[in-house]
Amino acid sequence: MASEYLEHKLALLPDMPGCYLMKNINGKIIYVGKAKNLKNRVRSYFKSSHEGKTAKLVSEIADFETIVTSTDKEAFLLEITLIQKHRPYFNIKLKQGNGGYPYIKITNERDPQIKIVNTLLKDGAYYYGPYPNVYAADETVNFLQKVYPLRRCNGYQGRPCLYYHMGQCLGPCFKEVPKEEYDKQIKKIKSFLNGNVDSAKKLLTKRMQQAAEKMEYERAAEIRDQIKYIEITVEKQKIISNDNTPRDIFNYYMDKGWLSIQIFFIRQSRLMKREKRLFPIINDPDEEMVSFIAQFYQQKNQLLPKEILVPNTLPTDVISHVVEDVPVRTPQRGQKRDLLNMAGTNAQLVLEEKFRLMELDESKTTGAMKELTDAMGIAPGHRIEAFDHSHIQGTDIVSAMVVFEDGQPNKNMYRKYKSKTVDHADETASTKEVIRRRYSRLLKEHADMPDLILMDGGEIQMNAAKDVLVNELGLNIPVGGMVKNDHHQTADLLFGDADTPLHLDPKSQGFYLLQRIQDEVHRFAITFHRKVHTKNTLTSRLDAISGVGPKTRNKLLRKFGSLKKISDASEQDIRNLGISETVAKTIKFSLGKIGKSSDSSE
């Protein structure tokens, strides 16, 4: 049921297309949607029953606002812009980049060259890919440079470069190469990269035979290996199309509020790469798919194909309009239709596997976050950030932060901190420093704040964190203090102005989540501290040796990694790093006791 405030706002909604922004109790935008009719769409959230992710969204909506547009297409484009700007929790979020897949590039310059790149630029160059791995792309470029050379040198230098003598450069290093000669080679390269490899194999076979007739057997063997490379690397994937059109294929499967998406990348007449995505969704799956495809091609390094294939439930004209008028079609028969169906089948299999894995973990994670927020009497949330400190007798002081989202660790968001202002054991000072550094940065970057902060250290760290948040930064983020018993195990959670124990049920999901968070942040802090302490110990021992300066010390650490391994190394091994005989002998003498003490302890 909507609150009285929301009921008034619902009554004022217009019968027009546009976008709507749902907000939680803290005014944070948690979902952005678009509608042909704002009145009908927004009211449906509060006048119908829901389940899954939609039900979670509705339970957190405290307010909303709308933006009216002239057409449905305008609303669609605005929705993409708003999603990218606000990154709402309940919207589909795409990772930036293309997952590290390389491209082959033929540069657009007077003396062009062929190279491997990871970034797509609008520079008039020809791009091919993405390739499934760096090795395949690298081998392809090496092959093309030998068979269809362009430029491999840095340009004119008054004399032929080594690559020219090897037949892998057309010679702009000492002469002007006609543009027509480059164009001829580029035409052959483009044909090869589009899948036409027969002519290259025939050319190589002829060269191999000529080399053999001249008794140049090493050269013949090298060419034979190049032919084998084409057969193994370039032709290893089955031809799945009758034309060389670069095309992307999108299909999906929807069940239980989850959307599973499969993307096939057809390049050189082959299925070059596949991507899969899984999202819990709010709206109709067709609308979510259109939004996904539009965002997909706005990512950095995402090369547009010559054709996009989608199922018949999606509006091809709308998709084409937002992806720079690339043709978008729904195949009715033949190989393209089979590929589209295969993508749909794979999407279904991936989602069914996801459900099986979710069932295995459901008993431990479902509702855990809500149990904690309910026990603390705060608004429902999704992200917890937890902190802990570590040191040895006040030295090498470090802090660590872990992040849990909906009961699961998000290790990409973990952070480590070396103390800058505290040089002795002081829990309050260490807490204030790390909280100040973390959240002043988030404020500066206008980034999302967590829904809950947990401190591993009880009321001392808890109150120090609240002091910085409220009195210095003006933030009102709930803070709890995790406490342990005499056996150093999770015991309870402190919360509130009076640091009151909540007495959580040890068998509850909320307590289990608290236990996982406390164990994880402690593990992360201890691991980081050990690395810092070990590095500092190694550094100090090496710095104490006469003749060992920062450069020599770094050479030793990079090569051997520990004092024991440096001690076990021979004098010649140390001298091989460019260290003088005198210093090498000094190092061996100074560290000799380490090896002896290690042997005796065993």
Automatic annotation (TrEMBL):
It is found in: Cytoplasm. Its main location: cytoplasm. GO terms for molecular function: DNA binding; excinuclease ABC activity. PROSITE patterns: GIY_YIG, UVR, UVRC. NCBIfam families: uvrC (TIGR00194). The UvrABC repair system catalyzes the recognition and processing of DNA lesions. UvrC both incises the 5' and 3' sides of the lesion. The N-terminal half is responsible for the 3' incision and the C-terminal half is responsible for the 5' incision. This is UvrABC system protein C. It comes from Lentilactobacillus curieae. The gene is uvrC.
